[in-house]
Amino acid sequence: MTTSYAEIAADSEALAFLLDPALDIHGAHVPAGPCGWCDDTDAVATVRVYGQPRADVFRPVELVECCARCANTVTDRAVAERATDTPIVVEVSRG
Length: 95
Ligand SMILES: [Zn+2]
Fold this sequence. Notes:
The protein is 22% helix and 21% strand. The protein is an alpha+beta fold. It has one domain (5-93). A 4-stranded mixed β-sheet has the order 1-4-2-3, with helices on one face. Zinc ion binds next to helix 2.
């Protein structure tokens, strides 16, 4: 029996965003730096989210580099704030 990547990802709450159809996910080089979302100084940014917020959103997600633990929260916000139904572009570090 084989396990699909989708099943593996669905098992992992932290990786749930990988299955969000509202996201357009690519592998990319995300330079190692601090998470731009949480206060955890040990958190390393591995995900980059390009928001497309409506003009009326207060402090929207525009370009956020965040750690894997924050990715679900940041992508959920970006989807909720988006101006159109265009998928939110997300880059995930290849390591
Ligand atoms: Zn974080």
